[in-house]
Amino acid sequence: MDFRLHSAKSADHALEIAAGLKEGWRYVAGGTDLVIQLRRGVRKSDDLIDLSSIASMRGIKEDESGFQLGALCTHKDIELHEGLSAAYPALLAAARVVGGHQIRNVGTVGGNLANASPAADVAVALLALDALIDVKGRSGARVVEIDELFVSSSKTTLAPGELIERVRLPRLTGETHSAFLKVGRRKAMEISVVSAAICLAFGANGVCEKARIALGAVGPRPLRAKAAERLLEGAKIDAELIARVAAQARAECTPRSDPRASAAYRSQVVEGLVKRGISQCVRIS
Amino acid sequence: MSTTHELNLTVNGEEWQLSVKGTETLLEVLRKHLTLTGAKSNCLEGECGVCAVLMNGRVVNSCILLAAQCEGAQITTIEGLANGETMHALQTAFLNRGAVQCGYCIPGMIMTAAGYLKENPAPTEEEIREGLCGTLCRCTGYTKIVEAVQEAAQTMGAK
């Protein structure tokens, strides 16, 4: 592991440092993925730009529009924030199953997104919650809808140099319920074999008005089962519909076999998780 | 290629001004610069937890944390957990319960428990098991470790 470490004082300072470096540099926040990759030699970087002391990228704020999470918020910050975890149970559930407490105290929400693992738990939950990502680059700031962020494993639509400043979660109105479920090979400290985050909004008559089904580790990126979502929207949910939606969600996945699980197993699991996740949201409503 | 960084660190109540390399981890600083060898150097991938220390009261894996990112931090290691000659309730409970076999994971296990009990002072057995999930004992001694943490939580709660 050999690199130069550059400490950024602000988001603009980080962009300025990045502009002066040769290709191959990386931003580092908590480092819980990056430091391991560098030490293993699976990734090489001559320069790291340390974002961890940028005060404006910390903290969780709440206003009428919803919640704003600084990109440097740790998984533990999410878990311990009562307002946030009460408003978005799926996010709480996802933040609580990432690594052990040691990792959750250091790993950040910005890193979870920028790392762009198809199996990233928090990213999957944020995808179901329609998060907006505030991104900053040399040419200015822009807002990226989370569904537009991921390309494939460790690839995002962020331009070179652009950094994630904060994540915004729109306030959920009325009868809206969310759930996050994960299957791993063991209970704790495990990368997801499959994960699913569901968010359903119900109208006064119990009809599902808006549905989000976000799935992890069943494709090259955290993905939404959009055709399955459309089956739910405008419908009164019953057991027969849940089974159809889960089968449709399964059909929208393109899982791969890897040392953690086979593609066939992932397909079966994802159908089960979608069923359970929807049932969980319906039961609460 | 590496850069050099001036680092202010409070370790077990003692203030240090150190000059560290950008590539050095907090674990390397503790073990090599400060000769505090209670935190162990093992998997170096954040999997096993035997390097666990408290940073600003929260448990972290010092093996994957870059030291230069710890500017101004308060670090507590197993060496600083006791209050002078008086052992911490966790240390007493681990002895009482015979929760130690080979002992290698115990500094990490105790620091992980210390961090978790700050967050949840009265945990159930299930919660303790989840709280310790990032720290591995390969002697398979979890039952007594969990009992020891339960006992320590009771002792600390009774004070």
Account of the 3D structure:
The complex is a heterodimer of chains A (285) and B (159). Chain A has 285 residues and is an alpha+beta fold. Chain A folds into three domains: 4-50, Uridine Diphospho-n-acetylenolpyruvylglucosamine Reductase, domain 2 (2-Layer Sandwich), CATH 3.30.43; 55-170, 2-Layer Sandwich (Uridine Diphospho-n-acetylenolpyruvylglucosamine Reductase, domain 3), CATH 3.30.465; 175-284, Enolase-like, domain 1 (2-Layer Sandwich). Helices cover 33% and strands 26% of the residues of chain A. Chain A has eleven helices and 14 strands. In chain A, the strands form four sheets. Chain A has a five-stranded antiparallel β-sheet with strand order 4-5-10-6-7. In chain A, strands 11-12-13-14 form a four-stranded antiparallel β-sheet, with helices on both faces. Chain A has a three-stranded parallel β-sheet with strand order 1-3-2, covered by helices on one side. In chain A, α5 (89-95) packs antiparallel against α8, α9 runs antiparallel to α10 and α10 (239-251) runs antiparallel to α11 (263-284). Chain A is globular. Chain A starts with a strand and ends with a helix. The mean pLDDT of chain A is 95. Chain B has 159 residues and is α+β, with helices and mostly antiparallel strands. Chain B folds into two domains: 4-79, Beta-grasp domain (Ubiquitin-like (UB roll), Roll), CATH 3.10.20; 89-158, DNA polymerase, domain 1 (Orthogonal Bundle). Chain B has a five-stranded mixed β-sheet, with helices on both faces. In chain B, β3 (52-55) and β4 form a beta hairpin.
